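Take a look at the protein record below and flag anything odd:
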Amino acid sequence: MMDQRWRPTVNEREFIEQALQSDLRVDGRRPFDFRKLKIVFGREDGSAEVELGETRVMGYVTAQLVQPYKDRPSEGTLAIFTEFSPMADPAFEPGRPGEAAIELGRVIDRGLRESRAVDMESLCVVAGKHVWSLRVDLHILDNGGNLIDAANIAALAALSTFRRPECTVGGEDGQQVTVHDPEVRDPLPLTIHHLPIAVTFAYFGDGNIMVIDPTYKEEAVMGGRMTATINSNGDVCSIQKAGGEGVMSSVIMQCLRIASVKAADITSKIKSKVEDYTTTKALQKVKRTPALVPKKVHVPDVAMKESTGALENQASKTSNDVQQISKDPPATVKDNKQEDVELMLTESNPEVKSTSNSGAAGETDEAQESRTPKSLKDAVKPKHKRKKKQHGKS
C-alpha cells in the first residue's frame, strides 16, 4: 500500500536532518510546536471536521440499538472505522483497508475505549437485550502528516456534539422499547468523563532528536514514531511505539511530560469550540418563538394602561359630581319636584292651568301669592321671623 508513497531525495533528507539538529523545521516551527488547529462542526449533531496544518480529517458518529455482549450485558459498544480515500494521498488504494488504516483505527480505539472515556453503562436501555452501539467513521480528506492526532481530535469533537435519541421502556412485560423522534423529545448527549488526546512524536538519527506533530515529509525521513494518549489530568491512557529505532526510557518520560502539557491545551480548545456550537444550537431553537412573545406580553400592558387611565378619568368625574351635588343639594331637589308637580297637574286636568292663568290676570299680586303653593324655602323659616309674627298678631 505504501509503495507509491512519496520518497525524498538524498539532498532533501540531509537538509531536513541538518535543520532538525539546529532545532529548526522545514515549515518554520519549533520542535515542540503543533500546527494550526481548526475545528468546524457540521449541521447535524455528531459531525466534525478537523484541520491540522495541511491534514484534514472528518469524523461522523451514528448510533443504533443492538444486543449487548454476553460478558457485558449492561454496557454499550463503541467502534472506530477509518476510510482512506485515494484523493487524500496517492498511496491510498480503494477497497479493503490497508495496514495504515488498521493501525490508525486501533490506536484511536485503544485510547478511547480502554481508557473508559465514554460511559458505556449510560448506553444501556434494557440489560441483556437492548443497548446503544456507537460507530465513529473517520474519513481522511487530505494527508499532510500526523493522521493519528488529527483523527483523534475529530473523533473526540464528534462524540462531544453527538446526541442520541431518547427512548422509554414500557409495554405489558416492561421490555418494549420506544424510540422518540427528536422533534418530540430532545436527544440526549453522551456522558464523557475525560478527553484522551493523542500526541505523536517523531524520532530522528539515533533517537536523540524528537519533534511533535511531524509533517508529510518528516514522516518520510523519521527513524521511529511514538504516540502517547494523555488526558488533561496527566493520566496516561495508552502508549504506542510503531517500530523503528529504539528509544531510551528517559526520552520516553520526557515525551510524556511534554504530551501532558499539549493535551491540556488541545482539550481547552475542543471544549471551547463545543460550547460555542452548543450555544449556537440552543439559540437556533429559541428563534422560533421570540417574535410572538413580545406581542402577547405587550398587548395586555397597553390595555391595562388604557383601562387604568379610563378608571382614573371616571373616578375624577364622579368625585367632581359628588362635590357639585354636596354644594347645592336643596336647589336641585326643589327644581325637580316642582317640575314634576306641574307636569302632573297639567296632564291630569288641563282646565286648572287656564283658571289659574285667568285668576292670575284679575287678582292682585298678594292674592296670587297667597294661592300659589309655598315652596320648601318658604315653609321652613328662621325662628326669629316666626317670633316677630306671633308678637304682631298678639
